[in-house]
């Protein structure tokens, strides 16, 4: 798709810019940056080598651990002090952004699962000249809040591709499991999946913090409607629970999921999970730190006003062995 190609080109552009930045002369006059296209960060932001990465990920979430690994790896390679924090409560996440603004960090990377709750905090950061890059969620509101770029997966496109893949596999009725209320990205995934599936489909709301209840709810949905033959999880932990629910219900439903962890890799190998939609979240940590470094040091911007797309890709039995090694080391 054109937008996916754009994301790949932008990602490759980041790599080229990193090489250019690392090999640039040391005698550049920093005042020359003030007239750069797209503006330049404030003097305070330029002088502070700290990037705060603030996500809506909960502690121990394997997905966000990979994002954190990407951000910290970029920080080590570029000499940037990366401070990672995550909180699934939107109000608490907003306070973390406020604290970073008060500290005068050199840049902020933030996921926006609940954009309205973060709007004032992000706008306060950009008003002070602190460059902000949004990741993962909230793509549609990113520019509105003053962010210089968005890095992530277009959730509607990814959902549509997943739904189409299940339909192509001969599935006739879809259950899409939403595990976090109020997360707009999850709703976009399910809406996209319904469009791509182009057949009977419904959603099921569960609470990721309660895996026992989640398994019971999925099992109940399958038992009450035996015609459901496809279950789309939007999270690796939910996928693992769905495997148990399908077994408990005696269902023949195929399970697919968004995102990877070791359990999903094992499930794909065992055939209990058909495929995973991979948004390559390591890049969602690595690229924004790199982009902020380039923006601060050289007033570069990436994406041309479009999101830098990191997915979707697909992991199935054809490529799972290659990806498994990277997943074990925490980069996929």
Largest β-sheet summary: 6 strands, parallel
Q: Helix count, per DSSP?
A: 12
Q: What does the radius of gyration come to? A: 20 Å
Average residue pLDDT: 88
> What is the chain-wise order of helices and strands?
HHEHEHEHEEHEHEHEHEHEHEEH
* Count of distinct strands: 12
Q: What share of residues are in beta strands?
A: 15-25%
Spans where pLDDT lies below 50 across 5 or more residues: 1-38
Helix-and-strand structural type: alpha/beta
Overall 3D shape: elongated
Strand order of the largest sheet: 2-1-3-4-5-11
Helix content range: 40-55%
Characterise the protein shown here.
The chain has 332 residues and is an alpha/beta fold. Helix content is 49%, strand content 17%. It has helices at 2-22, 43-47, 62-78, 90-103, 115-127, 155-168, 184-197, 211-224, 236-249, 262-270, 281-298, 320-328; strands at residues 50-55, 81-86, 107-111, 132-135, 149-153, 174-178, 201-205, 230-233, 254-258, 275-278, 308-311, 313-315. The strands form two sheets. A six-stranded parallel beta sheet has the order 2-1-3-4-5-11, sandwiched between helices. Strand 8, helix 9 and strand 9 form a beta-alpha-beta unit. Helix 1 (2-22) crosses helix 11, helix 4 (90-103) runs parallel beside helix 5 and helix 6 (155-168) runs parallel beside helix 7 (184-197). The longest helix is centred in the N-terminal third of the chain and has 21 residues, at 2-22. The two termini are 23 Å apart. The model is unreliable at 1-38 (pLDDT under 50).
């Amino acid at each position: 798709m054109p937008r996916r190609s754009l994301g790949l080109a932008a990602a490759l552009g980041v790599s080229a810019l990193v090489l250019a930045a690392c090999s640039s002369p040391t005698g550049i006059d920093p005042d020359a940056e003030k007239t750069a296209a797209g503006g330049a960060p404030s003097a305070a932001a330029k002088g502070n080598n700290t990037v705060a990465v603030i996500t809506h990920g909960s502690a121990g979430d394997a997905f966000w651990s990979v994002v954190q690994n990407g951000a910290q790896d970029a920080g080590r390679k570029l000499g940037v002090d990366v401070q990672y924090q995550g909180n699934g409560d939107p109000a608490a996440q907003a306070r973390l952004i406020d604290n970073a603004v008060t500290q005068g960090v050199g840049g902020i990377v933030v996921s926006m699962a609940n954009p309205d709750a973060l709007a004032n905090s992000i706008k306060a950061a950009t008003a002070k000249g602190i460059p902000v890059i949004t990741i993962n969620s909230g793509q549609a509101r990113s520019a509105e809040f003053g962010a210089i770029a968005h890095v992530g997966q277009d959730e509607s496109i990814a959902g549509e591709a997943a739904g189409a893949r299940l339909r192509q596999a001969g599935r006739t009725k879809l259950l899409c499991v939403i595990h976090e209320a109020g997360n707009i990205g999850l709703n976009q995934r399910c809406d996209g999946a319904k469009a791509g599936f182009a057949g009977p489909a419904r959603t099921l709301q569960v609470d990721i913090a309660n895996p026992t209840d989640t398994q019971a709810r999925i099992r109940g949905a399958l038992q009450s409607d035996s015609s459901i033959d496809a279950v789309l999880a939007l999270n690796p932990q939910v996928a693992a629970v769905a495997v148990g629910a399908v077994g408990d219900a005696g269902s023949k439903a195929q399970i697919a999921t968004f995102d990877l962890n070791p359990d999903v890799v094992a499930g794909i190998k065992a055939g209990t999970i058909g495929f995973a939609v991979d948004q390559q979240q390591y890049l969602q940590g690595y690229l924004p730190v790199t982009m902020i470094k380039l923006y601060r040091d050289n007033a570069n911007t990436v994406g041309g006003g479009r999101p830098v797309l990191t997915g979707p890709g697909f992991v199935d039995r054809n490529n799972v062995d290659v990806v498994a090694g990277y997943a074990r080391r925490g980069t996929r």
